[in-house]
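This protein record is not my work; I was only asked to verify it. Would you go through it and say whether the fold makes sense for this chain? Here is the record exactly as it was handed to me.
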Amino acid sequence: MNSTTGVCTSMCKYLFRAKLRNYLFLLLMFSLTANAQRKKVQVRQVDPRFTLSLESYFSTLTADEEFFYYVKNNTNQEYNIVVDITANYACVGERRFKLGINKVVYLAPNGEFTPKSDWVHYVLTSDLKGKAKECASKFEDSYTYLKNISYTISSVENLTEKKAAEEKKKEDDLANKKKLADEKARQEKEKLEKAKLEKEKLEKDKLAKEAANKKQVAKTGAAVGTVSTTKEASGSNEKKTTAAKTEKASSSTEKVQGAKSNTVDAENLALSKQQQAQQLEAEGKAQEERRKAAEAAELAEKQKEYDSWKNKKAEEQKVQDAASFAASVGLMTIVGGWIYDGMGRVDPMFVLKPEDEKKRKFHMGLDFGYSLATMPILYASDKTTMVGGKTQNTKQITAAHPFTFNIEAFWKVGIDNENYGGYAYLNPKLGFSPIFDGYQFSPLNYGARLYAGAKWAKLYFEYGGGMRQFSHKSHDAEEAGKGNAVISYGKLEYGLRFTTNHDSDYKRSHISIGLISEKISPYDVGGFAILDPEYGFVQFDQKSKAIQGFAFQWRKDHTFNWYINFGSYIRLGTNQKYKKSNNMLA
C-alpha cells in the first residue's frame, strides 16, 4: 500500500502581494486620508469569558472593505471555541461563517485570537455589481457596507481541564502499571522461594532414607546372630538331657539344625540386597528431580533478568521516540508557521476576472507545504530473543511500513481557459519519520496535466514520473535490520475535474477524482526484490505488474491544495540487501 497526502499554499503570490502593498504604501502614504484607517465596530458581548471585537478597513482607492475579527480570553484557562458569525451587508445580504482557518478559535490563557489565524473577510466591489456608492453608508469619517452583525459561541472546550484530566489518567495508569509490576515481582519471588524449599526438602528426605537403610542393615545382622546362638544352645541342652539316646539319632538332629540355620542366613542376605537396590533407585530419582528443579530455577532467573533488560530498553526507546517526536513536531510547527502564514490572503489584482475567463490566460505558481507518505518495503531482519531462559535467533526477510512527514514544493506553469487548460510541473519531496526510523528522498518528480470540458466539469488526463527512495531502520532492541527501496515510476492518472463557483473572481475550488495506473522498475542496475503476492515468497530481478489506485484532489485558488493518492503497492526492497537472506517472508 502506498498513500500520500499534502497541503500547499501559493507562496509566490503571497510574496508578490506583500511587495505590491509596500510599493502602494510608498506611493499613497501622502495622499490617503484618515478614511484608510481601521474603524472599530461596536459588537454586543454574549459570554463574559470572551470578548469579541471587530475592525473594518474601507479602501478609498478601490472601494473594497475588509473586516478583522479579534477574540480576547478574559480567563487564565486555555480554550478551543467555535464562533459562528452572521454578518449582514448592504446590497450583498447575509453571510454566515465560522472564525478560524480550521473553523476553531484557539485561546491561550489571557491570550487573543487575531486575523493572522483567520480567513480574509471582505466585501469587494465586484460583489456589489457596480453599486458601491449606493451601497456604502457613512461610518464616522469613512464608509462601510456592514449593516449589522451577530454571533454565537458554541463547543467551548476547556483545554486546561482536559489536560489536567489527561495528566491524572496518565498518573493513574502509571500507578496501575507499577502495581502490576510489583505483583509480578512478588509472584516470581514466591516461585523462587518455593523451588528452594522443595530442593531443601529433597535433601532432607535423602538423608533420612540413608539413615533408615543403615539402621535396617544393622538390625538384620543382629537378628541372624541371635538365631545361630539360640540354635546352638538348644542343641547342647538336648545332648545333656538325652544321653540315653543312640549316637545315630544325635547325629541326625545336628544335621537338621544346621540346615535350618543356613536357610535363615540366605533369606536375610537376599532381603538386604533388595533393600539396597531400592535405596539406590530412590536416591537416583531424587537426585534427578533436584537437578531439574535447580535447572528450572536457573532458567527462570535468566529469563527474569532478560525480561527486565528488555523492558528497560523498551522504556528507554519509548522516551527517545517521544523526545524525537516532540522535536519533529516543534520543527514542523516553526517551519509551518512560515509556510502557512498568510494562507488565503491575496490581492484582488492577482485573481482571475470573470471577463477574462474566455481568454487563454498564462499562469505560473510555486507552492510549498507538508505531506505524509508511506510505502511497504522489505528488509533483512536478524532477531535474537530469549524464551524460557534459552536464547533464540531468527533470520528472515520481513516487511516494514516507513511513515514520513515530507516538505515538498510544487512548481507549475501553464495556460487556463473556461473550457480547457493544462500545466507542466516539478514536485520534489524530502521527508523523515517523526521518530527517525525512516526517511524519503524523492528529488525528481515531474509531469503534466491536461483538462477540457464545460465550465463546471472537465475530463482530465495526467502523466507523471520520477524516482522515490524510502528507507527504514528497526528500533527494536532485539532486532538488527535495515531496509531500502529505490524505484523509478511512471504514473497515468485520469478522471473528472469539477469547479465550484466558476463565475467567481476570487476563490474557486477545483475537485478532481480519478484513477491511477502505475508501473515501477529498478532505479539502479542492482534491481530489486519483490514479494510474490500469490505464494508469499520473495523473488529477485522481477518487474512489477501495473499498480492500480485512486486519486483525490481539492485545490482552492490562492489558498490550499489538499490531495491523497492511494494504491495497493507490493512489498519490495533493493536487491543486494536480500540475496544472502532466507527467501521466506515473515
